[in-house]
Write a structure and sequence with these properties.
The structure holds 2 protein chains of 2 kinds. Chain A is mainly β. Chain A has no helices and 30 strands. Chains A and B meet through β6 and β16 of A and α3 of B.
Chain lengths: ~325, ~375
């Protein structure tokens, strides 16, 4: 297989290229409006054929972002949580009283927003709740069912019902530093990314452990396929997919390995409807990979910088990507 | 324009990495005084400063980030493989501000162990890609260091680990007391650059831009008794203690005259350095398994090690360094024609098994 994938079917010509004006750390869609999150200060919003618009959201570095149907929420080193709507209107949602960095944000049911600063996790639902984690929060995610937040930290993760006053948060223990967290689409499994090049998982009902290793670097990007059957991961020079179809998840099973390369995958995004993964490599290559047969479609040729951001529109017709050198693109598959 | 040779490109890249200086020192030694002095010099540079969140004294700088000093063990079964998780997070955040500062200074608390800070740069790929550890600078209190070396293991760690040591508050002690402190420090760490200061007054270039962890510059491997202004060295020919363990192993390989009349030479009972050398070429197939095995077994007691090696049938110098169990090494450059092909290796650590290390090293001779 040639590294440039020159013989691969290509959708590169369907791409609109943009200059983002800075390192792109994340991409999102609000409907058909693409939003590129820059490393410093601003978002770049653009419709597929519209005029790009820069929206200043933070007075410094942007550390985290998340999206729901109506808004993008960002956290910055200015100690602010900012929400921005599709028109580019932004407002400060919360300010940390001590102006600590807002390291993580997550969005939940009923317009709830969660964020963390140092060891403290906050949830703003109907009321503001907060939880002191045993150490600095490494990641946040809402579970798909109920109003429950998963918090990654050193030596494990904590499951917390913010509205159940007086209830004891549930601890999931595993030694080491957990730097990101995700919940399976059926809510039965929690998976964390670790400082070591591995993932750790728990089946919540019996806290059964799952160790998922074999990576060449830290896993920084995760995604669940639309049917919830697979967890797609970055961190290796091929796409590693862990099977979650059965009641035991990936326990005792081998991952599926697709699209090998000389370069590592730095970011993944699962198609919202089909069993297709977009995978961005550190050499700038972007492939669409079909899980069933491993078929590949070239979405971006290798370039001068790693792909650092990927997002699908909800209908799966648009794919936004961004790179470390500030290049951005929108691939229109319609 | 013609393409630059590959190695030049690599070097350029290394230069782009933001240098990080770690300031350590026991409580009250003068770390913050030194920090504020660095920041207030008319150097025209911008620094990002990472301080302990609970620090009391104000730091006069635009960019100050509070850290938690959260140390965690890597999940690899090694208890000495510890990392500062908060530094991973903060450095990652800081490095998103491209080009807004020239260097980063990390001030640790008085009780901090410098090893997890250093190991963070070896273990975290993202940190190692964008920043480089420049040097560990330790500030010591001339009046109180000797007491702290007796009752505070942290203070001894900080001295043993340092690349640069400031003996501060020298105006508060007599010349004899100062000589005593120097000798005590040299008994633990003969390799650090030693400076005597009042109110942490020191030229900036002695503290910043040291490249102490740069493999290309592992040249300061000679004990500092070769420096004119400093007198201490790592020999133990004047015993101020009565214990009986074998402390002569670390004398191996040295042949200079013991002629520092009137100066004290201490051997620390717990923390020592071992310096070994040979002019016979080493066998890499023996050396690497030996040194790997050594740091696996003795990692917790080895604070730092470094070496320049001459391998059999190899025209390039090999250099390496290590912190506890973590080793980093590479071929550096061809041996020069007039250069003596000699292998030198240095360990600083706690209760090091000197005989075992010496015999092991000698068994690596090709």
């Amino acid at each position: 297989m040639s590294e440039g994938r020159s013989d691969t079917v290509s959708v590169v010509e369907r791409t609109r290229i943009l200059a983002a004006g800075g390192v792109v750390i994340a991409a999102h869609f609000l409907g058909r409006m693409a939003a590129f999150v820059l490393a410093e200060e601003a978002l770049l919003l653009t419709a597929p054929r519209g005029e790009p618009k820069i929206v200043a959201v933070h007075g410094g570095v942007i550390l985290a972002s998340a999206v729901d149907d109506t808004r993008i929420v960002t956290g910055g080193d200015d100690g602010k949580v900012v929400e921005t709507d599709v028109s580019g209107e932004s407002r400060t949602f919360a300010t940390d009283p001590k102006h600590r960095w807002i390291d993580h944000v997550a969005l939940g049911p009923d317009n709830a927003v969660a964020w963390s600063a140092g060891k403290t996790a906050f949830v703003q639902g109907k009321e503001l709740r907060q939880y002191e984690a045993p150490s600095t929060v490494g990641g946040l995610t809402f579970l798909p069912k109920g109003f429950r937040l998963a918090i990654a930290h050193y030596n494990g993760a904590t499951l917390w019902f913010p509205n159940a006053a007086g209830s004891t948060p549930e601890k999931l223990d595993w030694k080491g530093s957990h730097l990101g967290v995700t919940a399976s689409t059926d809510g039965r499994f929690i998976v964390t990314t670790m400082q070591e090049p591995m993932l750790h998982g728990w089946r919540i009902v019996d806290r059964q452990h799952m160790r998922m290793s074999g990576y060449s670097s830290r896993v920084t990007s995760l995604g669940w396929t639309a049917d919830g059957d697979w967890l797609a991961t970055s961190g290796a020079s091929q796409l590693i997919l862990w099977p979650f179809q059965g009641k035991d998840g990936p326990m005792g099973k081998q991952p599926r390995l697709l699209a090998p390369s000389e370069h590592r995958i730095g970011v993944v995004a699962c198609h919202p409807k089909q069993s297709v993964i977009a995978a961005g490599y550190t050499n700038g290559l972007l492939l669409l990979i079909r899980i069933d047969d491993g078929a590949e479609i070239l979405a971006k040729k290798p370039g001068d910088a790693p792909v650092t951001a990927l997002a699908w529109s909800a209908d799966g017709m648009l794919l936004a990507w961004g790179t470390e050198s500030g290049e951005a693109g929108i691939v229109d598959l319609a | 324009m013609p393409e630059a040779p590959q190695n030049e490109k690599v070097q350029e890249k290394a230069q782009e990495k933001v240098p990080v200086t770690v300031l350590t020192g026991y409580l009250g030694a003068g770390k913050t005084t030194l920090l504020n002095r660095i920041l207030s010099e008319p150097h025209g540079k911008k620094y990002a400063v990472i301080v302990n969140e609970f620090g009391e004294i104000g730091i006069d700088n635009d960019l100050v980030v509070g850290a938690d000093e959260e140390v965690f063990e890597m999940n690899n079964g090694c208890i000495c493989c510890t990392v500062r998780g908060d530094l991973v997070r903060i450095l990652d955040g800081l490095m998103r501000r491209k080009g807004k500062f020239d260097a980063i200074i990390v001030e640790t608390t008085g009780l901090a162990d410098p090893a997890p800070v250093a190991q963070t740069f070896f273990i975290d790929e993202n940190v190692g890609k964008k920043t480089r550890l420049d040097a560990v600078v330790t500030v010591a209190d001339a009046k109180w260091l000797n007491d702290r070396l007796k009752d505070a293991p942290e203070a001894k760690n900080q001295i043993a680990f340092a690349d640069v040591i400031l003996i501060n508050k020298t105006d508060l002690v007599s010349p004899e007391e100062l000589d005593d402190v120097v000798a005590r420090i040299r008994g633990i760490n003969p390799y650090a650059r030693l400076h005597k200061t009042e109110r942490a007054k020191i030229p900036l270039h002695e503290v910043l831009g040291r490249n102490a962890f740069d493999l290309d510059r592992i040249l300061d491997i000679e004990p500092s008794f070769l420096e004119a202004e400093d007198h201490g060295h790592d020999h133990a020919h004047d015993h101020h203690h009565g214990h009986g363990h074998d402390h002569h192993d670390h004398e191996h390989g040295h042949s200079h005259a013991h002629s520092h009349a009137g100066l004290k030479h201490y051997h620390d009972e717990e923390m020592q350095s071992i310096s070994l050398k040979t002019d016979k070429p080493l066998d890499p197939d023996k050396f690497f398994p030996w040194v790997q095995d050594l740091v696996q077994k003795e990692g917790p007691s080895i604070l730092r090690c470094k070496g320049i090696l001459a391998f059999k049938n190899d025209d390039e110098r090999f250099v390496f360094q290590g912190v506890h169990m973590i080793l980093d090494g590479d071929h550096q450059r061809p041996w020069k024609k007039d250069e003596k092909r000699e292998s030198r290796i240095v360990f600083i650590g706690r209760n090091l098994p000197g005989k075992k290390i010496t015999e092991g090293f000698e068994s690596c001779i090709a």
